[in-house]
Every structure is written in C-alpha cells, then in structure tokens.
Amino acid sequence: MITGEMHHTFGVFFPLSFLFLVSPCSGGNILVYPVDGSHWINMKVLVEELHAKGHKMTVIRPSNSWYIKENSPLYTSITIKLEEDFKNVFDLYLEEQIRVQREGASLLSFFRLNNQFMTMFTQAHGFWCDVAKKVLEDKKLVKQLIDSKYDLVLTDPFTGSGVILAKYLNLPVVFNVRWITRGEGHFFMAPSPLSYIPVPGSGLTDKMDFIQRIKNMFFYSIIKFQEDKVLLIYDELCNKHIEGGCSIVSLLQQADIWLFRSDFVFDFPRPTMPNMVYIGGFQCKPAEPLPADLEKFVQSSGEHGVIIMSLGALVNGLPNDITDEIATVFSKMPQKVIWRHTGDRPSTLGNNTLIVDWMPQKDLLGHPQVKVFVAHGGTNGVQEAIYHGVPVLGIPLFFDQYDNLLRLQERGAGKIIQLADLNSHSFEKGLKDLLHDSSYRENIQRLSRLHKDKPISPMEDCIFWIEYVIRHKGARHLISEAYKMPWYSYHSLDVLLLLLAVLMVLLYSIYAVFRCLCCRRKRKTKPKQN
Amino acid sequence: MITGEMHHTFGVFFPLSFLFLVSPCSGGNILVYPVDGSHWINMKVLVEELHAKGHKMTVIRPSNSWYIKENSPLYTSITIKLEEDFKNVFDLYLEEQIRVQREGASLLSFFRLNNQFMTMFTQAHGFWCDVAKKVLEDKKLVKQLIDSKYDLVLTDPFTGSGVILAKYLNLPVVFNVRWITRGEGHFFMAPSPLSYIPVPGSGLTDKMDFIQRIKNMFFYSIIKFQEDKVLLIYDELCNKHIEGGCSIVSLLQQADIWLFRSDFVFDFPRPTMPNMVYIGGFQCKPAEPLPADLEKFVQSSGEHGVIIMSLGALVNGLPNDITDEIATVFSKMPQKVIWRHTGDRPSTLGNNTLIVDWMPQKDLLGHPQVKVFVAHGGTNGVQEAIYHGVPVLGIPLFFDQYDNLLRLQERGAGKIIQLADLNSHSFEKGLKDLLHDSSYRENIQRLSRLHKDKPISPMEDCIFWIEYVIRHKGARHLISEAYKMPWYSYHSLDVLLLLLAVLMVLLYSIYAVFRCLCCRRKRKTKPKQN
Questions:
Q1: Of residues A234 and A4, more confidently modeled
Q2: pTM, whole model, 2 decimals?
Q3: Helices and strands: H and E segment counts in chain A
C-alpha cells in the first residue's frame, strides 16, 4: 500500500538538475518573437531559464514596448521603430469593459463588450502586423537574421507574425501558446467536438445540456467569424512575403512543438496532438521566506490567518464605490488582509488591512497562514493558486479570466463573483464560504497534488522540447498531415459527396428500371382490358 | 551549437533508477487481466518490472493457457477451468492465411482472408467471454476478488473482459493496449479523421490521394461493421452483470490510463487524448554480450557482417518451397546468416547459414556486425529494430504485420516483400538493396535516435502512470466527457438538426410572406387591367 508519506515525497517535482546531468545541451541560438503585455511576463520566465541553460537569444521588440526592455543581460534585442502607441487604446478599453460589466449582464452588454473587444483587438493585430512588415521589408535586417543562423524561432502565436518570419527564414518553430488571435489554440490544431468542449467566453463547462450545446455552437460561430476576419491581415502578409503564398492557419499548424500554457488538472480534458506539450504552471516556484516586516504582519494574524488580494498588473484600480465596499468587508473580518491596490486609498479601510503597491505573491500563496486568494483570474495567478493550494475568490475583469476561474469553481476550488453582482453582501458571503467550508481548501490541495505529480516538471518539459527541436532540427515526425488539406478533404466531405452521388445514381437507376418495368406491364395489360 | 557527442550522450534513456529515488512507491496490489499469445509476451515484460518495483500481482488465466504459467514467482494466479482448446483453431488459421496469400493478391483473396480472420476471431472472443462469465458467475471467486482490495485492474483491452470485471469490482483501470477487438485503440478514444488516418489493414499511409481516401472509407466501414458485431457479445455481458447495464465501448472510454504500445516515431501522427501515454518500445533493452560460440560466428563474418532472420514465435514454418528459395539466396551472400527456423531443414542451405531454434534477438540486433533483420513485422521485432537501428526486410504474414512494416518502409528504414511476391529473385534484390543502399541504415538510425530521445523512457512512463493511478485512486480528471454521450450528441447532430429546422421554418416564413405579398399585388393590379 502507498503511505501518505510516500504521496508527499512524490508530490514535488524532480529537481531541475537531473535532466541536464544527462543532457548537457547548451549553446542554442534562439530567435524570440514575443507578444507584449502579460504575454511577455510568462515568455520572460522561459527566456530566463533558457539563458540559465546557456542558450543565446535575440528578442524582436517594438520601440514603444510596454514591458520588453531594449537592454537586458538575458538577450540581445532587435528594436523595430514604431510611431503608433497602443497603450492608451488598451487602457481605455479596460476602463470601458469594467464600466459596461458593472451595468449588469444582458445580451446588449454582451454585444457591446464584444464590439469593444474587437475594435481594440483589430488595432492590436494591425500594430503587430506593422512590426512584422517592417522586419520583412528591411533587407539589411533580413540579411542579418539569415546570417545569424538561428536554430529555431520561439514565438507566442497570439500574433501570427513570428511564425511568418520563421517560415521566411526557413527555421523550426516552438510555440509558447494558449491563445491564437481570437481563439483558443486547440481549435486550430486538434479536433474539438463542440458537444463537450466549451468555447472560451461562453461561460460553459464540459458538461452541457442541449440548450447549452446550442449556446456553445452560437459562440463558436461568432468567434470563428471574427477570427477569420483577423486572420485575413496575416494571410495578406503570407501571400506577400512567403514564396508561393500560404495561409496563416497552415503555418500555425506546421509549428514543430506547441508548449501549451495549460494542463488537464486546470483545463477540461479534450483531444490533443502529438506535438502539444502541456506546460501549465511552468512559471510556478516554491515559496521563499517573506521580508521580515511582512512575515511579522502575517504571523500577527494568529489562528484566523491571512486573506490576500490582487487584481493583476494590467488594471490600475477598480471604481471607488467597489473598493470602498471591499474595504468595509475586509475591515469586519477577523483575518489580516494584504491588498495589492494602486488606485485611491479606500475611505473605509480597516486596521487589519495592509495596502501594498506590489507583493511577493508566490511567497505569500506558499505561506501556511494564507487562507484565501482574492484574484481576477489571470492565468499566472490561477496557476500559482493551484500550485500552492490556496482557494480563490475570483472577480473576473476581462479576457480569459472568467473561464480560468470557472475551471476552479467547477472543481469546488474557488468561487466567482461577477462585477455586476459585486457588493459588500456578495463579497462577504464569498469570503466566508471559502474560509469556513473546508471543501474548497481540500479540493484545491487535491488539484495541487495532481498538478505536481508529473514525471518531470513543466519547466523541464519546456527546456527538453526546445533542446529537442535544436538537436533534431525540428520535429516534423510529430506533425500530422492535416495542415496540407483543404477543409473539405480534411473532413472527407469530397469522399462523402462522391459516395452520395453514386448512391443517388444507383437509386435512380433502380427507380428507372422499376418504372420501365411497370410501364411495360401497363402497356401489356391495357390492350387486354380494352 | 549542439555537438555530435552531446547527441550521443542524450541518445540513451535516463537510468530507470532516477525516478524511483524520488518516488519509492511500492506495494500496490494489482489485478492483471491479460490476453494470451503474443499479447502476453509484452504484458509479462510489464509484470516483471512491476514485480521488481515491489508490486503484488494476481493474474487471471484460463486453465489451457498457451503462455501464461500457473506458477510463477512474479504473481499469484487465478485459473479458470475451460474445456475448449483454441490453439488448434488458431494454428489452422495461420496455415490457411499463408496458403491464401501465396495465391496472390486479389479482391477475392482479400474477402477470403477477411472471412477466415472473422471466423477465428469470433471464436476467440467467444472463448474470452466464457472466461469472464465463469469469473463473474463464481460467487466465491467474486467475493475473494472484492476482499483482496486491489488498487487497480491492469488489462489488455483486446478482450473486453478485463474492463467489465473492473467495472464490476469498481476499480480503476490501466490499459496495456494497441488493439481493441477488431480495431485500433485510437478509433475508440480520439477523433480520427479518415482523411489522413489510414485504417489498419488498408495498406495505406497518412498521405492519401482521393481514390485512396475512398478506399480508406471503405475499409473503415467493413471494420466498423465487423467490430460492432464482435462488441455485441461484450455488451450482453455488461447488461447481465453491470448494474443498470452499459455498453462495452463506454467502459473502454472510461479507462483511467491507456498505456499505448506505439509512439509517433513508429506511427503516423494523429489526434490523441490526455490519458493516452505512448509506451512504444517499452520492452526494448540495450544489448548484452552474445554467448561465446555465437559471438565467434558473428565475428567470422568480417567486413560483410551478418543477416539475421526470424518470423516470430507464432508461425511454425513457411512452406518448404519458400524456405528453399530463401536458403538459396542466403547461400549466395558474402554475409553470415543466423536464421531462427523451426520447420524442415531447407535442402539448399549454405555453409554461411546457421539455423537456430531460438536466438537472443535483441543482443544480435544491438551487435554492430548485424546489417539486416529479415522479419515478419510483429510489433516487438519492429520496435527492437528501431531501438537498435537495424534496417528491416519484412515478410508480413498476418494481423498488423504489414501495417507495422509499412511504417518502416514509408520512412525509408525497411522494405516489404509480400508472400505472393516472395521468390529468390525478389528476396535477393531486397537483401542487396538494404545492404548496399546506406540510406536505409541512416534512416532507421535516425528513428532510433528520435525514439530514444525522451524525457523518461517508455518503461518508466508505464511504471509512473500505474503508480499514479494507485496514488490518486484513478485519473478521472484526464477522462473526457465524450463517453457519456450518445453518438448523435457527441457529433452535435441534434443541435445541427434543430438549427436546420429553425432555418427551414425561417426560409419558409419568408417565402410565405413574399408569396402573400405577390398575391395581393396581383389581385390589386388585375382589376385595373381588366
């Protein structure tokens, strides 16, 4: 029998070192084509690890990048000069999204939110295409890229630019991926039956009744339509710069390895492909000791423990009416509270609540005194909550955040409060549920055990497969033939149409023969009657 | 840059020990429900490894088993008394298959072969169902099985019996699988587009033109029809013994982990599922030194090297006319030959050819002097050829052998000679091609490097996932919702039908409104004209 102790021994990833005692692979030359914003945060984690393993990297960045620094000890950068600034558009979008959501959920607000999203989104892709165009049209830069003899392109296919450049340079491709333009990566790669695979944004799970499956189909149609529109600008780029032309979708499907920022402890199980590697939680690390003053504050919470709250780096702050309600609830709790908050100081703040600009989130989540994590549901935060086993009270703001939190809620490891429903009553109830119903903690700790019980850690998987592509100059043998086919051949519609035609001809022939026989009989019998 | 030396360093699996330094998981209590014959050969490899890791096993076997011994230091056995003997039927089937194939390929011979197969096959499943019935109807034995509190059932779902027993005992299930009744395992589990996934027995690859895709659809229909017929007897068993009844297919789809005896170095890439673990080549081990006399014989081959030939354990021997032709060709070659052959001694045997009853196949394949492997294409042999990087001249006899060899041939790592085309001329040409065209050796050595370049070895994967299921009492979170749905819901046909109906009503309404309007107009205009 397996003892509890053994469980525990296993519930920790193997040390990163073991793999590379056997595989001292170093010195790869990698061209990194990232996406800015929160996408860069996780790409940077990978860049850091690759750098530590001795790989050389060149990062392509726009001159007005938000987060991607020009000078870094981790990489050499290639800066593409751009005039437009996208940050204002984005900030305005975020504010608008919060405002519309506060007005309550309705079909009208759904279309308004969707419309805002598509406007911002189309601008973003236009901006990313501009970067790619400037790279591809700069003959000197292109020559420099060719001469650099990179081993592979590491890119986030949320923009299609990286994969187009890779094709142009004839280099293998590794994706650090979860989203592709408008959709979720799997929908481009693996068959995805809509009967049990919820479309992002639909608010559905993998258990759907008939009405929900109709809703899912409806969401899929909208997303597919919008996606196809966005992909057009990348198709143009392909047709202009890739010899013989091609579609961006076929380029995406040809990538050698997909490092997928998810796993099936977090996400619902669904079909996958041989070159998809699940690296969900690759950014998570064990907690380190807190700074002395924070540790003192945390310890002062005694038996009640600590609640921590953070709504991520993107949003500057919730409207004051909301933060005041939240602060009131916090002030009534026996717990201590650490709240990462950058807006106005709430007027109702209690003595038990510490407001901070920044907090060591992973170290707090890994602290045994921390009981609940109030979060917006960004992938990083949710993965860290799973890793450290802390239940989440989720306040989703935009993008995939509701869907991320829904996955926790479905497994009884968290609760969601929508912005429209957020008030002191719902917030207090949510907090108390999570604090007093032990099942939430038990469930997320079970997820944590499952997440950590892997033959090798997600980060080791990343490094292994990137070095694999370097060693074998790609991973063509893992790529299916699907990308070479038009959609009607892929779905065997041409074959079925032919078989249907043959069947029709056959049936018609039988009918014709019978009719002919009947006619003759009639003709034969008629004279007798007359 | 990665050096050749590093390649080499990596091209060896990590030592089996590393995993279990961290995971000293032992003492699982496993109920093994195997399939006899060649299926037991690879199940036994797994049983040996599990035994070495300290797991306790109980094996269910029929009293007249061919290979599964009653007394073994590896396991306790439960013997089910059976009268019928299936061995004679099987041997007769093999002889008949060889005879019909020698007559040449035609549509008639295809149907004759298929008919022979289905007759033998239906009998086999009837036999396996008898075993399951006897277990389930023996109240004393069932109580003993319940009292034993097994952690899981390890079974080969080539027969559906193991999974039915597991459901009855309410135990998690791990499969050691490639074939399920009539079909390949993937077709039961993962979406399998027929546009690029060849149906076993079709002789097709993943690159198909229009006509080949029609052929593939045709083969799929035949196999599906025959499969459904075979599955009926298991459905009966389910409905009789499982509370509330269920279909055997849904039981198969609910298995916790599928240890799949293939990988995508060997097989064509295709959609897969989160609980499918690819263990192709798990039975392969590095070569050990040959016995002194054999080593002396091998060394005596000098620069020309050695050819080895074996057509597996199932077949007693090819017809004498064939073996004579083969022996003639061998006698003319400058190489030495080691031939595992149990039939009559060929009259034309040369001095360079050593006939043996048994040979240390893996140790020979791993010997640098061995240049070509003449084989029937059984999974074990093909996987060993890939592991050791020796090109294969294949003479497929039955079952999956042609398909296995086709995968090597497609990658330029082997050649196939069909029984109908086998004569001294074709055999000599085949041998010489493989010996003198270095691309065959280069290609299979590339496959060997790819096969060995994995984060952990296939056998470690087996042990990891079996112990994972023990630790977590199953792996429910990796099983998709698909198995709960009727086929029309799974394919969203009900949703599409509704949408079609709505569309029709809508179109008809528009038509009706227009007709109404037109009528009015007519009525209005008519009087004026008149």
A1: A234
A2: 0.92
A3: 20, 15
